[in-house]
């Protein structure tokens, strides 16, 4: 027939195989050597951004929140909870250690480049999180009068029901104290072994790192908080 010519296979397309069936050559060692550092850097960046703006894991170094949290437990702290709502009584929060808290000295916190570097290493698990933060439970809100009396806590003269405390727990006497505007009164569940607002007073809300939402370690104790 006029215009007919036999099929001719090209060097780029083997006979009998459509273009999508052709296999791509695996990346060379040189390509992998270039990509791996980029992937590692990207993973570190993502971990750092998540830790800085979304959530962070914290190690429990003391027994001030026993039995809810034991020494060595790990909790996940949400850093966006209080962007969505105000702090609530009963929330467990992580906050910067007040300057007048026992064992804390002015200027002890990491700052500047040192803090950024430490944050990165904590994000990828190279360093254990620092103990520059405390973890306690919110008891009193701004404007409320808090008092410890007869082994119990009173808010504005009314006894506070605290179902998270073990039976028989007693609270030392203190106050009455009015929580200032922008402040929070915090206490540990282990009332006989907790350095809290009874020692250093109300904390400032702006020092709150976030709300503890989940206990993730040890595995047999995983639970929402």
Description:
There is one protein chain. The protein is α+β, with helices and mostly antiparallel strands and 225 residues long. The chain has a single domain, classed as Ribbon (Umud Fragment, subunit A). 20% of the residues lie in helices and 26% in strands. It has helices spanning 29-53, 81-84, 112-123, 197-200, and strands at residues 55-59, 74-78, 92-96, 133-140, 145-149, 152-155, 158-159, 174-178, 183-187, 203-204, 208-217, 223-224. The strands form two sheets. Strands 1, 2, 3, 4, 9, 10, 11 and 12 form an eight-stranded antiparallel sheet that branches. The longest helix has 25 residues, at 29-53. The radius of gyration is 28 Å and the shape is elongated. Residues 1-13 have low confidence and may be disordered.
Distance between the termini: 82 Å
Query: SSE order in H/E notation?
Result: HEEHEHEEEEEEHEEE
Mean pLDDT over the residues:
78
Q: What is the CATH C-level name? A: Mainly Beta
> CATH topology, which one?
Umud Fragment, subunit A
What's the gist of this structure?
The protein has 225 residues and is of the alpha+beta class.
Tags for this entry?
single chain; 225 residues; alpha+beta; Umud Fragment, subunit A; 8-stranded antiparallel sheet; 4 helices; 26% strand; elongated
Please write out the topology.
Elements: H1 29-53, E1 55-59, E2 74-78, H2 81-84, E3 92-96, H3 112-123, E4 133-140, E5 145-149, E6 152-155, E7 158-159, E8 174-178, E9 183-187, H4 197-200, E10 203-204, E11 208-217, E12 223-224
Antiparallel strand pairs: 1-2, 2-11, 3-4, 3-11, 4-9, 5-6, 5-8, 6-7, 9-10, 11-12
